[in-house]
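Section 5.1 Outputs to date
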Amino acid sequence: MSQKISSPSHSNSSSSSKHDSRQDSWEIIEGLRGGLSNVQEPENQAGYMLKKRKWPMKGWHKRFFYLDKGILKYAKCAADVEKGKLHGCIDVGLSVMAIKKKAKCIDLDAEENIYHLKIKSQELFDEWVSKLRHHRLYRQNEISSFHSPVSFTSQAKVTAWLQSSDDMDRCTKELSVCEAQLLELNHLLRSMEVLHRTYSAPAINALQVTYSCDGSRPLVHQASNESRASITESLSEFFDAQEVLLSASSSENEVRMKSPLYFQSHKCTAQSVIAVGVQLGCVENGGSQEQRRCCLPSPSPNTSNISLWNILKNNIGKDLSKVAMPVQLNEPLNTLQRLCEELEYSELLDKAAHTQDPFERMVYIATFAVSGYASSYYRAGGKPFNPVLGETYECDRPDKGFCFVAEQVSHHPPISACHAESKNFIFWQDVRWRNKFWGKSMEIVPVGKTHVVLPGFGDHYEWNKVTSCIHNILSGQRWIEHYGEISIKNSNSEKCQCKVTFIKAKYWSSSMNEVEGAVTDHKGKVVHKLFGKWHEGMYYGSPPSATCIWRMNPMPPDYEQYYGFTKFALELNELDPLTKALLPPTDSRLRLDQRLLEEGNVESAEVQKQRIEQLQRERRRVLEDNHMTHQPRFFQKSRDDTWVSNNTYWELRKDPGFSNFDCPVLW
């Protein structure tokens, strides 16, 4: 009933060491096989276990658990369970269950939450695992018997799909069709809702909204006794309506102009139209850098025929950076280019560099830190290519006023370093990731700091990144959330600091992607409040009066068909003849597998991906045989063990150039 998850042994170790290795690996507990069966009703189980605290708290706490017919209830004590004062319930039949015997750990991935449990006693651990197995089978059998094939619920189907890769493939195809239809229906409903608000706008007087795109005028929101969350939702609805109305017909515009909302937002709407027009003023592939491309050569491939369960089932609780994935699961960008995406809204740093007040400067810095997550909203369906050791990427953007360079400085562990400069700021970071797959979801935990220096003020800001989690890895519509706390400080001044919290979604609430924060002085007194949504926009101040300081750029046409890329992301892998002549042979834009995937040639991309990965393994073997280590070309280790630029890339690019650049053959 279970499948071992452990690496194959390559040595003639003793049987005891093999046994210890198995004990220290994760074991996924399989569920019901072959449809309905006669599963005897299990006995109830109760007792205390250690449960890992939910974010943002750390550590473990003791909780009383009561297992009844496949439902695991928990509370602070037994009396609370009897009184119904529960902290939560877990349907073990609909959860992916994994155990680690040596550590006496039990993990239950219930999709909306991942529950990490631990038991100190080996005897109790074995007892709980045995009971959970029995209850899980009983619950799955119960679900199967109570639902006909027609009315079977989506969650119950997931349980059955996990039992067979054939079922998984078939159901994945069915889900793809359903998801497309639901998406179309959702768009229709949103359009109808917008039209309803538009035609009824003259009668609306309970809500009056005025704002300006550049934040020079306050956003006034007149509403009585509304919470911060409801205000955020109202603002979101208003902006969404405005974006749809930009493309309305002339007759609809006549009606819309009668609305008080139209006159209050007319200035910003005009600016938005101009901005959209400028952004869409582009040419097809191969155009000059003054006019960037606005679409990819080919849409993203169909991945419904790939069984992720067959790939991931042996990697529960493991780091996925070492797991080989089919090229169809990638997007035609890599991690180095993803780092550059964080500069899409670099104008926030430019504004900070021209803001005299240190507390307002911190507001712009904090908003910039949030804006870096916006592009991920539509990107849960794919993963970036893993850069090979020594791979580089440059992005020279005179239109944005910065030049950027990145390099893969380590392979195991994977470390990507980057550096960007403009006349207003210096930006750098080295990022390391820990990826964990938990059965239904994948957590991405970044390690490292992001740095921004504003030379004009001598400010040096640094901050951490938050945890990201991709849900519905195996089935259903994948979605991504970010949660945790960003702590921003100026290492050259203690005058102010900022904390920004990405709020974890709750399954009983419709609120998603909310962010809130505060800029405080050296005594901890709040000077500015921040709130918004990381995929929409940010505001500072307190309702009923607040200022809009950032809004996500409009998505390009048909973005769903092109990996969910933003306009900026579409441009990152663009390669024109003039730029190509200036690039080193290690630049990501010259990588064959990534380029072939972008062009829609999936089969050739897979062949090249395997060839490039083999070349990397051979280079590593040569280094090991000669007792050598890889030395990055454009970054060096600093005293605090982080990677920083050695400031040679752009000088070398200028003179003598990269035509005779001595580097290993990466592809």
